[in-house]
Amino acid sequence: MKLYPVASGNFKLDGGAMFGVVPKSLWSRTNPADANNMIDMAARCLLIENGDRLTLIDTGMGNKQSDKFFGYYYLWGDDSLEKSLEKHGFHPDDITDVFMTHLHFDHCGGSIQWNKNRTGYEPAFKNATFWSNEDHWNWAVHPNRREKASFLKENILPMQESGQLKFVAGPEVDFTEPNEMDFGIFFANGHTDKQMIPHITYQDKTLVFMADLLPTAGHLPLPYVMGYDTRPLLTLPEKEKFLNEAADKGYYLFLEHDAHNEIITVKHTEKGVRLDQTFTFNELFN
Predict the structure, then answer these.
(1) Are 52 and 128 in contact (CB under 8 A)?
(2) 228-251 pLDDT, tens per residue?
(3) Which of 27, 74, 163, 223 is deepest in the core (most CB within 10 A)?
(4) Helix (H, G, I), strand (E, B) or coil at 72
(5) Running DSSP on this structure, what letter comes out for residue 211?
(6) Structural contact between residues 247 and 238, judged by C-beta atoms closer than 8 angstroms
(7) What is the average pLDDT score of the chain?
(8) Euclidean distance between CA atoms 105 and 86, whole angstroms
(9) CA nearest to 12, candidates 103, 87, 71, 75
């Protein structure tokens, strides 16, 4: 097995929305805001090469939305999904599996693209199976009013229409060992229903793809919960359980949205679980 970090682009979001009820005087210490109260965000994906299987976890926003849409998110930097794959020697057609932690637009938008004539949509990975879970899929295609703006039908429905969509088994329990995928999955419900958090064993380490369970290193304190979470009172015990386990077992946390910290470890302190060390991918895995 070999892993590759894949930068699909950077954007900005309102810092207040990213930290919910936490005052700016606190969250700005770790996530400084610009004059518009926007903080730096990444869309960092992960590619797993395992034999003949090439699995991409999440795909970023993609590029098919309008300029007006992207204008809300202040895109910055030169990264793109296709350029990052090419840097590692791969093409979208090489991808055999696309695993989506959940179906919010900033996690799955790159899965679908315009067709050649821009008359409709098609999978950006024509040879891949797209993986979700049935509970979350139903949650996304029949969205509640709060999440409707995040579940964009043009990102979601073409996966099913193409015949390339499959569902992982579960969740009968909140953590499943590797089955259809090459990794275990922790299911979390606070941010959105049945978000999937992959646990990957690599070079004798457990690397956890954090998705929106822990967006940035600045979100480590338990009350630092996004305003985007649909059920924050579920996020709190889910975070507590996970972070205690991560500190106990020495997990390496791969941060999808932290523009300035790629991988972190955590430790127990008198104030709760807090940041221990930070790493770049290349520092940790040579």
Answers:
(1) no
(2) 999 999 999 999 999 999 999 999
(3) 27
(4) coil
(5) T
(6) no
(7) 96
(8) 23
(9) 75
pTM of the full predicted structure? 0.97
d(CA 179, CA 91): 26
DSSP 101-141: S--SHHHHGGGEEE-TTSSSEEESSTTPEEEEEHHHHHHHH
Burial of 46 (0-12, 13-18, 19+ CB in 10 A): buried
Q: State the pLDDT at residue 218.
A: 98
Contact criterion met (CB below 8 Å) for 76 and 10: yes
Closest C-alpha among 52, 56, 82, 77 to residue 4 = 56
Res 170 pLDDT > 80: no
Q: Around Cβ 285, how many Cβ atoms within 10 Å? A: 17
C-alpha distance from residue 236 to each of 113, 181, 224 (Å): 36, 27, 9
Identity of the residue numbered 279: F
Whose tokens are 């909140």? That residue is 174
pLDDT tier at 279, thresholds 50, 70, 90: very high
Give yes or no for a contact between 18 and 147, defined as CB atoms under 8 angstroms apart.
Answer: no
Residue type, 52: D
Compute CA distances 186 → 79, 132, 173, 181, 198, whole Å.
29, 13, 9, 13, 6
Q: How far is CA 4 from CA 44, 73, 113, in A?
A: 10, 26, 23
Length of the chain: 286
Q: What type of residue sits at position 184? A: G
Tens digit of pLDDT for each residue in 76-131? 999 999 999 999 999 999 999 999 999 999 999 999 999 999 999 999 999 999 99
Q: How confident is the model at residue 272 (pLDDT cuts 50, 70, 90)?
A: very high
pLDDT at 269: 98
